[in-house]
Amino acid sequence: MIRIFDDPEALSRGAAELLVGIARQAVAARGRFSVALSGGATPRRTYELLAAAPYREQVDWARAHIFWGDERCVAAYDPRSNARMAREALLSQVPVPAGQVHPMDCRPSPREGARRYEARLREFFASAAPGLPCFDLILLGLGENGHTASLFPGTPALTESERWVAEVYVPQQELHRLTLTAALINAAAAVAFLVAGAAKAAVVREVIQGPRDPRRLPAQLINPQPGALHWLLDRAAAGALRREDLRGQVDS
Which one of 3, 108, 159, 194 has the lowest number of neighbouring Cβ atoms within 10 Å? Predict the structure, then answer.
């Protein structure tokens, strides 16, 4: 489903409401809520809203388990760290038990960091049904080059079908990253893309309505089955979509 909001603030509130609703359902059904957070400017505002009334009181934070969809291999205090951003905007202000917050760590190497994070996920989801884990919700962003999480165009992680977590080197940034793989993301009960701004309009159209080319547009790999896929867009990001091709898909 595609939801189009008037502006980034309305989008952020819509994302906060989506998380609250899914968290309530998960806790009622299974006694816990598992979410993988995203980095970037758009989710930061969502996290700030979740840290304040009225949303803060609507989530049973004691039963929440926090993971990340990807992370840069930087120090925990580095401004580029997704975990640092989430701590500042949300986690330092809500009563999530420290043992239920699971940041990615690239030490002692990106490969070993990916292995350890996968081991942590396998332990956490061990009581679930056999096979891939099932996050209640995974939040994602979208880069202007079509990447999501740290699934970048042309990288080996795009074709990974066995591992749940992979290391990625991005030459343009001279930086290693860790990322959940597409196979794991697609096992989630719900996945939500949060995308704002006119700079993303062209790639939003390509990913949603363009020819399938996931090596160039990795976000096209994301299609949870039988889970739900949510696109939360502001009007600027949705500006290039062909509305005649969206009948029955848009809630705006």
Answer: 108
